[in-house]
Design goal:
Layout (H helix, E strand, L loop, with lengths): L5 E5 L6 E3 L4 E5 L5 H13 L3 E6 L22 E6 L28 E7 L3 H16 L5 E13 L2 H11 L4 E7 L2 E7 L2 E6 L2 E4 L2 E6 L4 H13 L1 H19 L2 E14 L3 E12 L5 H8 L7 E2 L1 H11 L10 E5 L5 E4 L4 E5 L9 E11 L5 H11 L1 H7 L1
Antiparallel strand pairs: 1-2, 1-8, 3-5, 4-5, 4-16, 6-7, 7-15, 7-19, 8-9, 9-18, 10-11, 10-17, 11-14, 12-14, 13-14, 16-17, 18-19
Length: 390
Amino acid sequence: MGVSMFNVLIEFNNSPLLFEDPLEIISCSKLSDIPSAFNKIEEALRSGHYLAGFLSYEAGYGFEERLASKGSFDFPLIQFGVFKGPEESSLPAGQAGKPKAACLPGRQEMAKIRVRGINISKEEYFQNISRIRSHISAGDVYQITYCIKFKFDHEGDPFTLYKELKRRQPVPYPAYIDGDEFQILSLSPEMFIRKRGSFVETKPMKGTWPRGRNLVSDLWAARCLHKDPKNRAENIMIADLLRNDLGRIGRSVKWPRLFEVARYTTLCQMTSTVTAHVDPNVPIFDLFRAIHPSGSVTGAPKIRAMEIIREIEKEERNIYTGAIGYITPERDMFFNVPIRTLLIGKEQEQGLGQGRGEMGVGGGIVWDSTAEGEWEEGMLKAKFLTQLSG
């Protein structure tokens, strides 16, 4: 079935770009169709158009023969709209960046969330942490980013929910996508890749610590994260992986900033910055083949980590830990890593905006990790959603 609607709101760094009414939609759900989808992306760029949309996590299977054991998927591997350009400030005052579809009558009721549970029991989770530590002990991997999913019921206007979540926990790389069969509400604090001309920058995120309860304890929490050996080890492993990935297509690869701590409403998180220079006209397929998915959401070494993830995780990740963003006709691009991202399905028999949703939560598992500690970290990361559910 063809896709008829696909509107994308990108609000990275507080600079809203609204992509509406696509000229064409490039979408595929089969690994074998990924190269042709990228060919269509190249054709659209040559015609002077913008691309805005996403790659799922599982799109990464199409870049590595060892991972391409499953042919097709229920959720799109790649979906991009082809647009004449974004709108920046054409909407009424106070509505900048708001999709016009969200202005329709009857779509402004407050969204309701009820978390139904997690897709795994705590006992199973502990067993899987033990399995991962066995792989680390055997030398198969150094780190695995292991994910679980929260399942929830949703009723109301998804865009209102997106705005409420963004108000409660401001993040630098939020995005909202409204498609025929789903909405994506991405409250991501992590940048995947930004390309400007020949300069490429990525900021892998690894390392989490709870916020303090007052000013002194909050400052101490950020310092504890910055100095914590386990979190630094996780972070440097992934920064090194990204450095190697960028080295496959670039030169002058550097990591100018390590172990930077950012504070969010419920937690502190650590990022590092890796940069490189590439051919400004590098094929988009080659670029994503080198770096997607981000090493921050796989572990290291990447391919072996992805094999183990597929064995252990109960479900496909879909949009979670994929990439959301846009590409300009000049071949510049800006993508986030969709963590803290809600995927809401539309149920036609119940009406637009009502349905069931899922949100992935993950953490980097290293030898020093404990099952209880990782479980608690996952609950902390999900708090921005679960606190709405009561």
